[in-house]
Design a protein that fits this description.
By secondary structure, this protein is an alpha/beta fold. It is built from 15 helices and ten strands. The two termini are 18 Å apart. Bound molecules: pyridoxal-5'-phosphate (PLP).
């Protein structure tokens, strides 16, 4: 948008996005190197990326896939989730978490969240277990690891598989009792989309200590062929056998080269995300009606999103109005997420409706994701704070509609 069209109350000329990748010249060099090599896909750089990723998260196996959604789908396939089965997923997540269950012909059962962290509530998960339940998918919402110390024994007791949707939480950990995200559940699915902790453009990863599951996923991402690229010396022969229905969910060597470059910088980015979060924490303590989510003590939060609840009474505007006002000021706030059971597809297909997960539904009315990404400067953070301060309507003012029009012009 040109400066001429800039709203009078904008505090920046261009929109500050809620998330953004950082790509270095070294990343570009690594990608170019692959482009000059023999293998653009299904080659050695994919394996190198997988090994580096597995090592990073403390898992025995890592399998690269074409997206985080493919990673979740592969996890459901590896567990042999199918028609007639139920899988418990939190209501507060990106639709892909539940979609992966539907891809396999199974039924997602939505569990509610704790209102303070927006993480799935283990007690509610337990209430929703039935004889048909096969697995639990925990989502490390905003980058905070779920309470695996409770979820793991629960899954074991009820004989269920535990999957982590770790799309937000690469680099997070739950020390000292457990460990890094990627080693906290039976299978962990990551996304490598540009807004996530590291990127390959599009991409995903599943990590696990179960060698059998890893092999199933390697077949699944390659049409269900009995050999993956690990058998590439046989390529060109006709001896591929399709043992199960699979997909083309492969990640390329080009993408994996970018992933390797990115993974090497994860620690620095995690540190920067923590600094930005701390700066928000300090500033927001002084702004009434803007409440950050709680952080469980002892966890290492990956800080993928910085989510606040806008409390309409104290803030003077509800979340919907605050969202609009902040976007007008060129602050690219987001809303993560509409609870999955409220999407028209789920209502139609599974008959879900409001009232199913009251905490998620109430949270949805109040949540706002503030911009956070490693390349964001302190000045950018201060712009967000300033925009929030200017957007807030002090309780006493309670302006008439006419005044509200004037205020909009002033910024
Ligand atoms: C991003 C995301 C996904 C899907 O990842 P893609 O790589 O975009 O397919 C799944 N679950 C959650 C919670 C996500 O944020």
């Amino acid at each position: 948008m040109s400066p001429v069209e800039l709203a009078p109350d904008a505090i920046r000329e261009t929109m500050l996005p809620y998330g953004r990748q950082s790509v270095s010249e070294e990343d570009i060099r690594l990608v170019a190197e692959v482009l000059r090599s023999d293998w653009l896909t299904t080659g050695p750089v994919v394996e190198r990326f997988e090994r580096a990723f597995a090592e990073r998260v403390g898992a025995a196996e890592a399998v690269a896939l074409s997206s985080g959604t493919a990673a979740l789908h592969a996890a459901m396939f590896a567990l042999a989730v199918g028609p007639g089965d139920e899988v418990i997923v939190p209501a507060m997540t990106f639709a892909a978490t539940a979609n992966a269950v539907v891809f396999q012909g199974a039924t997602p059962v939505f569990a509610d969240i704790s209102p303070d962290t927006l993480l799935v509530d283990p007690a509610d998960v337990e209430r929703r277990v039935t004889p048909r339940t096969r697995a639990i998918v925990a989502v490390d919402y905003a980058g905070q690891p779920c309470d695996y110390g409770q979820l793991r024994p629960l899954a074991r007791r009820r004989n269920l598989a535990l999957v982590a949707d770790a799309a937000h939480s690469l680099g997070g950990a739950d020390p000292p009792t457990t460990g890094p995200v990627g080693s906290l559940a039976d299978l962990s699915a990551f996304s490598l989309h540009p807004v996530k902790a590291i990127t390959t453009g599009e991409g995903g990863m599943v990590t696990t200590d179960d060698v059998g599951c890893a092999e199933r996923i390697r077949r699944f991402r390659n049409h269900g062929f009995s050999r993956d690229y690990r058998g590439r010396e046989a390529a060109g022969s006709w001896q591929y056998k399709m043992t199960e229905l699979g997909y083309n969910y492969r990640l390329t060597d080009i993408q994996s080269a970018l992933g390797l470059g990115q993974l090497a910088r994860l620690d620095g980015w995690m540190a920067r995300r923590s600094e930005i979060s701390a700066r928000y924490d300090r500033a927001l303590a002084g702004i009434e009606g803007v409440r950050p989510l709680a952080v469980r003590s002892g966890v290492r939060h990956a800080r993928h999103l910085y989510v606040v609840r806008i409390e309409a009474g104290a803030f003077g505007l509800d979340r919907r109005a605050a969202y609009k006002a902040l976007r007008r000021r060129r602050i690219g706030v987001g809303v993560h997420y509409l609870p999955v059971h409220l999407h028209p597809f789920y209502r139609r297909r599974f008959g879900t409706a409001p009232g199913l997960c009251p905490n998620a539904e109430a949270a949805y009315e109040e949540i706002l994701s503030l911009p956070i990404f490693p390349a964001m400067s302190d000045d950018d953070v201060d712009d967000v704070i300033r925009a929030l301060e200017r957007t807030r309507k002090p309780r006493s003012a309670d302006p008439t509609p006419l005044c509200r029009e004037r205020e909009r012009g002033r910024g």
